[in-house]
Automatic annotation (TrEMBL):
<feature type="region of interest" description="Disordered">
    <location>
        <begin position="1"/>
        <end position="25"/>
    </location>
</feature>
<dbReference type="InterPro" id="IPR029061">
    <property type="entry name" value="THDP-binding"/>
</dbReference>
<comment type="function">
    <text>Component of the branched-chain alpha-ketoacid dehydrogenase (BCKADH) complex, that catalyzes the overall conversion of branched-chain alpha-ketoacids to acyl-CoA and CO(2).</text>
</comment>
<dbReference type="GO" id="GO:0003863">
    <property type="term" value="F:branched-chain 2-oxo acid dehydrogenase activity"/>
</dbReference>
<dbReference type="Pfam" id="PF02780">
    <property type="entry name" value="Transketolase_C"/>
</dbReference>
<dbReference type="InterPro" id="IPR009014">
    <property type="entry name" value="Transketo_C/PFOR_II"/>
</dbReference>
<comment type="subunit">
    <text>Heteromer of E1 alpha (BkdA) and beta (BkdB) subunits. Part of the BCKADH complex, consisting of multiple copies of BkdA/BkdB (E1), BkdC (E2) and Lpd (E3).</text>
</comment>
<dbReference type="InterPro" id="IPR033248">
    <property type="entry name" value="Transketolase_C"/>
</dbReference>
<feature type="domain" description="Transketolase-like pyrimidine-binding">
    <location>
        <begin position="40"/>
        <end position="215"/>
    </location>
</feature>
<protein>
    <recommendedName>
        <fullName>3-methyl-2-oxobutanoate dehydrogenase subunit beta</fullName>
        <ecNumber>1.2.4.4</ecNumber>
    </recommendedName>
</protein>
<keyword id="KW-0560">Oxidoreductase</keyword>
<dbReference type="GO" id="GO:0000287">
    <property type="term" value="F:magnesium ion binding"/>
</dbReference>
<keyword id="KW-0786">Thiamine pyrophosphate</keyword>
<dbReference type="InterPro" id="IPR005475">
    <property type="entry name" value="Transketolase-like_Pyr-bd"/>
</dbReference>
<dbReference type="Pfam" id="PF02779">
    <property type="entry name" value="Transket_pyr"/>
</dbReference>
Length: 361
């Protein structure tokens, strides 16, 4: 069992989140000599980020359902228990509310918990702990107690899973003030956004797009990617801005290739961080193109696209040549696996919105 220690003296000295600038000297080498740069899947990149964070700070703890013995359903935590021992990587009962409650208690005592919720749809039993306590504790104590908890959740659809295994929960967390919400789209972003999340004094909901778990990329663990709160333009364009995140970034890039054949130039903005939101990058892109389409997997009504469309309309109204459109999932429960491809927004649904946007007089 993990020993309880006194809260560090530095805890709560600053009300601002910890957002360190990582340098190669800050990134500790893992116990086994792994190369600084390697081609990694997103699964391997997240595993590497957890290993490196645990080496750099022995207060970092990883726990959840089957994360130690099995290495997690997707083997994201494989090898951590063997490397760091059962006191720092351990299995929990099948009780999501208890997992988050334990994480909150450990954070109060000075630890840096990184709990895993096994699947997106399993996060609902933990909703009260997250919304009522995790999100509010730091402000409730006027910054005296930090809440450096990163909740990892394999999220979204696209893998043909059964019920409650393909949910888009981001709108719940975004509506809950006090939480940072992060969604990587590439292995490199998964590594660095997780490192930044673990180093934050605020709680972070880290949503991992399952459909991108097996995407490969060269990851440099010595050259930090942009921090939480920064979007990235993944493709330059002149006609329409496509704003998306997570697994749909690859979909948007594929759509941009097909749009070229029709004479439409799409600019693809990967949000990466939903809260805090880098609206400056979004606005700059919309002002260049004059048109915007927001794309996300979750249902249309009150999805994050609604917030983005409202804010773009408020702040970029005189730059718009057409209404902001949304390519989203439907306002129905997530369907059985055989209907998943029909339900999820894809290239066709996005290009339909693009056609409507460029067809405006």
């Amino acid at each position: 069992m993990t020993l309880i220690i006194d809260r560090p003296a530095a805890q709560g000295d600053s009300p601002e989140p910890w957002e360190p600038d990582f340098t190669s000297a800050d990134v500790a080498a893992p116990p086994t000599a792994l190369p600084v740069t390697a081609e990694l899947t997103m699964v391997a990149a997240i595993n590497r980020a957890l290993r490196d964070a645990m080496v750099a700070d022995d207060h970092v703890l990883v726990f959840g359902e089957d994360v130690a013995t099995l290495g997690g359903v997707f083997r994201v935590t494989e090898g951590l228990a063997e490397t760091f021992g059962a006191e720092r990587c351990f299995d929990t009962p099948l009780a999501e509310s208890a997992i988050i409650g334990v994480a909150i208690g450990l954070a109060i005592r000075g630890f840096t918990p990184v709990p895993e919720i096994q699947f997106d749809g399993f996060s609902y039993p933990a909703f009260d702990q997250i919304a009522s306590h995790l999100a509010k504790y730091r402000m409730r104590t006027h910054g005296d107690i930090n809440m450096p908890v990163t909740v990892r959740i394999p999220s979204f659809g696209g893998i043909g899973a059964v019920e409650h295994h393909s949910e888009s929960t981001e709108s719940y967390w975004l509506h809950t003030a006090g939480l940072k919400v992060v969604v990587p789209s590439t292995p490199s972003d998964a590594y660095w956004l997780l490192r930044h999340s673990i180093s934050s004094a605020d709680p972070v909901i880290f949503l991992e797009p399952k459909r991108r778990y097996w995407a490969r990329e060269l990851v440099d663990t010595s050259a930090p990617a942009p921090p939480i709160g920064r979007a990235m333009v993944r493709r330059d364009g002149t006609d329409v801005t496509v704003i998306t995140y997570g697994g749909l970034v690859a979909t948007a890039l594929n759509a941009a290739d097909l749009a070229d054949e029709r004479g439409w130039s799409l600019e693809v903005v990967d949000l990466r961080s939903l809260n805090p939101l880098d609206f400056d990058t979004v606005a700059a892109s919309v002002r260049r193109t004059g048109r915007a389409v927001v794309m996300h997997e979750g249902p249309r009504t009150l999805g994050f696209g609604a917030e983005l469309a409202a804010r773009i309309s408020e702040e970029c109204f005189y730059d718009l040549e057409a209404p902001v459109l949304r390519a989203t999932g439907f306002d129905t429960p997530y369907p059985p696996a055989r209907l998943e491809k029909v339900w999820l927004p894809g290239v066709d649904r996005l290009l339909d919105c693009v056609e409507r946007a460029v067809g405006q007089p």
